[in-house]
C-alpha cells in the first residue's frame, strides 16, 4: 500500500487552522497533504485531488466552498468545517487527527461516515446543489420577507438559519433520508406564525401556510418564475417570468466524516496510546482513587 494522501481546500484566511490540520494529519500517518487556498476553481481542484489519490478531503470555508467540494468529491469522505457556522465544530487539530486516521485506514470508514442528502435545483440552463436548504422568493431581490417556498434536507428544533422554521413545526433529523417542504406567506395571511432564528442575532416572525414530507427522488416544480432562488440561505440566481425550475431531494450526497465517531473508535481500539500493556486493550473503566501501582 502506498502513502496515504489527504486534501485540504480552505479559505486563505484560515492559515493557522490549515497548519493545525497538516500537523495532525502527519501525526496520524498521512504521507502527502495537498492544500488549495485560492479563490475559485474548487470543483476542478477537488477532482484533481481525488484523481491524485486523496482518501479524505477537508473543506474549510463558506457555504459556497462546501457546496463545490460536495459536488466534486465523489465517494471520497469529506470533512466539512464551515466558517461562520453556528454548529459546534471540531477543533482543527482533532479534525486533522480524525481525517488522518481515516485516510490511513486505521478506522473503518463504514463506521465513521454518513451519506448526506442534498437538494438539487434544475433549470433549463443550470443544475445546482444545496446542502441544507433551497428557498424561493417572489421578488427578484431575494429577501426573507418575500419567501414563498422552502425545502430543507433536515430541520431540528435547536437549529438556526432557514431550516429553523420547519424545525419549530415539523422536525426532521439528519438521520432520516426524508426532508421537509414548507409553504410560506405573509404573517397576516397564514394560519401559523413561527418565531425563527434565521441568522445569528436575528429572530423573525415567519408566516407558514403548511408543510409536508419531502421524499427522495420526487421532483417538485418551483413556482419561482420572475423570482429568485437562494441556496443554503445565500441568494444565487433569478428566474425569468417564463422560466421553470424544479427541486429534488437526492440521497447520494457526500460521505461526511463524523469526527466524534472517529475519535471514539480510535479510543476504543487504543490507536492513540503511545504505550500500552501487551495483550488485548481493556474495556473502558474508571477506578476509585487512590490508584494502586
Secondary structure elements and pairings:
Elements: E1 5-10, H1 15-27, E2 32-36, H2 42-51, E3 56-61, H3 63-72, E4 78-82, H4 92-103, H5 109-112, E5 113-115, E6 118-123, E7 127-130, E8 133-137, E9 147-152, H6 164-167, E10 179-185, E11 192-199, E12 202-214, E13 219-221, E14 228-231, E15 234-238, E16 245-250, E17 255-257, H7 259-269
Parallel strand pairs: 1-2, 1-3, 3-4
Antiparallel strand pairs: 5-17, 6-7, 6-16, 8-9, 8-14, 9-10, 10-12, 11-12, 13-16, 14-15
Helix pairs in contact: 1-4, 2-3, 4-7
Task: Sum this structure up briefly.
With 293 residues, this protein is of the alpha+beta class.
> Main β-sheet, in a few words?
7 strands, antiparallel
By CATH, the superfamily of the largest domain comes out as Probable inorganic polyphosphate/atp-NAD kinase, domain 2
Number of domains: 2
Q: Just name the CATH architecture of the largest domain.
A: Sandwich
Helix-strand topology string: EHEHEHEHHEEEEEHEEEEEEEEH
CATH class division of the largest domain: Mainly Beta
Q: For the residues shown, what is the average pLDDT?
A: 91
Helix percentage: 10-25%
Number of helices: 7
Low-confidence stretches: none
Shape: globular
Instruction: Write out the strand line-up for the largest beta sheet, numbering strands in chain order.
Output: 11-12-10-9-8-14-15
> CATH fold name of the largest domain, please?
Tumour Suppressor Smad4
What does the oligomeric state look like here?
A: single chain
Number of strand segments: 17
End-to-end gap:
41 Å
- Percent strand equals 25-35%
| Global Rg | 22 Å
Please identify the structural class as seen in this structure: alpha+beta
Amino acid at each position: 500500500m502506498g502513502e496515504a494522501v489527504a486534501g485540504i481546500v480552505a479559505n486563505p484566511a484560515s492559515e493557522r487552522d490549515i497548519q493545525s490540520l497538516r500537523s495532525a494529519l502527519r501525526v496520524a500517518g498521512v504521507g502527502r497533504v495537498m492544500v488549495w487556498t485560492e479563490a475559485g476553481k474548487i470543483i476542478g481542484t477537488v477532482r484533481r485531488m481525488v484523481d491524485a489519490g486523496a482518501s479524505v478531503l477537508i473543506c474549510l470555508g463558506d457555504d459556497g466552498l462546501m457546496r463545490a467540494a460536495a459536488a466534486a468529491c465523489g465517494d471520497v469522505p469529506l470533512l466539512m468545517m464551515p466558517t461562520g457556522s453556528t454548529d459546534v465544530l471540531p477543533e482543527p487539530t482533532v479534525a486533522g487527527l480524525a481525517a488522518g486516521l481515516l485516510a490511513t485506514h486505521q478506522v473503518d470508514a463504514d463506521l465513521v461516515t454518513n451519506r448526506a442528502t442534498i437538494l438539487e435545483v434544475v433549470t433549463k440552463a443550470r443544475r445546482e446543489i444545496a446542502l441544507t436548504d433551497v428557498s424561493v422568493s417572489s421578488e427578484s431581490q431575494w429577501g426573507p420577507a418575500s419567501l414563498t417556498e422552502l425545502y430543507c434536507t433536515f430541520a431540528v428544533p435547536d437549529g438556526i438559519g432557514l431550516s429553523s422554521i420547519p424545525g419549530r413545526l415539523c422536525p426532521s433529523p439528519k438521520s432520516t433520508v426524508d426532508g421537509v417542504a414548507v409553504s410560506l406567506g405573509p404573517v397576516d395571511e397564514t394560519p401559523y406564525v413561527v418565531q425563527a432564528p434565521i441568522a445569528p442575532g436575528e429572530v423573525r416572525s415567519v408566516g407558514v401556510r403548511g408543510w409536508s414530507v419531502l421524499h427522495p427522488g420526487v421532483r417538485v416544480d418551483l413556482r419561482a418564475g420572475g423570482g429568485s432562488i437562494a441556496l443554503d440561505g445565500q441568494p444565487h440566481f433569478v428566474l425569468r417570468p417564463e422560466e421553470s425550475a424544479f427541486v429534488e431531494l437526492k440521497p447520494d450526497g457526500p460521505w461526511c466524516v463524523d469526527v466524534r465517531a472517529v475519535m471514539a473508535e480510535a479510543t476504543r481500539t487504543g490507536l492513540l496510546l503511545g504505550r500500552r500493556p501487551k495483550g488485548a486493550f481493556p474495556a473502558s473503566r474508571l477506578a476509585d482513587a487512590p490508584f494502586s501501582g
